[in-house]
Structure formats: C-alpha cells, structure tokens
Amino acid sequence: MQKGFTLIELMIVVAIVGIIAAIAYPSYQDSVTRSQRSDATVTVSRLAAAQERFYTRSAPATYASDFRTLLDDTSIAVGTTSITSDEGLYTITLSNTSCSSTVGSVTVNSCFDLTAQPAASQGQRNDDECWNISQTSVRQSSSNKGGAANAANTCW
After folding, report:
1. Segment 99-125, tens digit of pLDDT
2. How many domains does the chain contain in total?
3. What is the full DSSP assignment across the chain?
C-alpha cells in the first residue's frame, strides 16, 4: 500500500490551484472596485440632499457655495469646495459658479454640481469605467478616465 502523494500528483494540484487563482483574482479585484464606488455615490447623494434642504430653507432660495455653509460645520474653513468622501476613497468637489447671479447685494446660486474623483493615494485610481461620478441639481452622471460618458450608467 502506498502512503502519501507522488510528485506528479502534487504538481497537478498546484497547477489547478494556480489556474483557479489566475481566474478568480481579477474578478475579485473588479468586485472590490465596484463595491467601493458606493463610497462616492452615497456621499454625493447625501450632499445633494443637503443642498436641496439648504435651498428650501434659504431666503432668497439659493444653493450653498461651500461645504462649511452646506454642512453647517465650523471646523471646515470658509470657502472650502473640496472634501474627502465618507470612507476617504474619493475627493468630492462642489461648484456652482456657472449659474450664480446677484440679487441686490446677495449672490444667488440656482444650481450645483457635486463631483467625486478617486483620491490620489487610493485603489480607486485604477477604476477606468467610473472615473468621475457626478450629481447636479438636475441629474446624475458618470464618466470614464478619458472623459467619455458612461453610457451604460453602471456607476450609479
């Protein structure tokens, strides 16, 4: 009776494990990338909802022009238009200068644009499909690294 494994049996098992790992690892990486997009979508959606609340409570009706005003957080510097997402994977920027007007002495912003881009030191920098994730006062959108729109809208 033979005890143990032969070298050829062991090599076959190692080859099978290697093939399985070569297939599974890229799929795992893709799943992690897609799941981490939720950091951007959740943060941007939360901030958009805060903008809408701010708009309905302001007189005259206006959107916030910086995160200190929007979040009513005195620890944020005045004029800050860029913050990190809840989990730190994205940088969120706020802009609304393209639709501002002055009524009397008050600047009124009639729109907003929140954009999430992968933070410089995070793994999301390798996300070619959903590079920018944006929400404006009228719609959601996303684009790839080349700037082309994500037609399948898989980012949201």
Report:
1. 877 777 777 778 899 999 888 777 777
2. 1
3. ---S--HHHHHHHHHHHHHHHHHHHHHHHHHHHHHHHHHHHHHHHHHHHHHHHHHHHSSS----SSHHHHHT-TTSPTT--EEE-TTSSEEEEEE-GGGEEEETTEEEE---EEEEEE-TTSGGGG-SS-SEEEEESS-EEEE-TTS-B-TT----
